Amino acid sequence: MLKISELAVRIGLSAHTIRFYEKHGLIEASERSESGYRLYSAADINRAEFVKTARNIGFSLKDIAQLLSIRLDRSSHSCQEVTDITRNKLHEVNRKMAELKAMQKVLSRLLNKCDGGLENATHCSILEVLDNGGLATTGGVN
């Protein structure tokens, strides 16, 4: 059995993060010591590592809760349920990547329009585009 500080070191999360996951029902200490310390069993450590891995991949707390539910009762769930959760996450990541690529393109255009000199910013082309809403929906910056 590990105390929360030992669990934190073992799996590479802060005690604060572990408490946060506990608050959201993702991790739970199996026992408490006589002095009230949370005590984590091997199964609890395994679950905490699962949560950490899923979080690092980008699953939301809601997704992780669903995955944990499936993990606890695999015979009552299908692989398709896990695949659906994973597919939805991938679609979300692809959408975010497209948004980031669009942002990258606009930022590059802004920088290409500006000489970045040391003169004052009275006629800064980047500020002018931002002031005029030139980025709105069109991806702006001609």
Tell me what you see in this structure.
This protein is mostly helical. It folds into 2 domains: about 5-60, Orthogonal Bundle (Multidrug-efflux Transporter Regulator, Chain: A, Domain 2); about 85-130, no CATH class. Helices cover about 60% and strands about 5% of the residues. It has 6 helices and 2 strands. The protein has a two-stranded antiparallel sheet. The longest helix has about 35 residues, at about 80-115. The chain is elongated and about 70 Å long. The model has no long low-confidence stretch (mean pLDDT about 90).
Structural topology:
Layout: H1 4-11, H2 15-23, E1 31-32, E2 38-39, H3 42-57, H4 61-72, H5 79-113, H6 125-131
Structural class: mainly alpha
Number of domains: 2
User: Which word captures the global form?
Assistant: elongated
Distance between termini? Answer: 62 Å
Let me know the number of strands. 2
DSSP strand content: under 5%
In spatial order, strands of the major sheet run 1-2
Mean pLDDT: 90
Radius of gyration over all CA atoms, rounded: 24 Å
Can you give the helix content as a percent range?
55-70%
**Major sheet details:** 2 strands, antiparallel
Low-confidence stretches: none
Total helices: the number is: 6
What is the CATH C-level name of the largest domain? Mainly Alpha
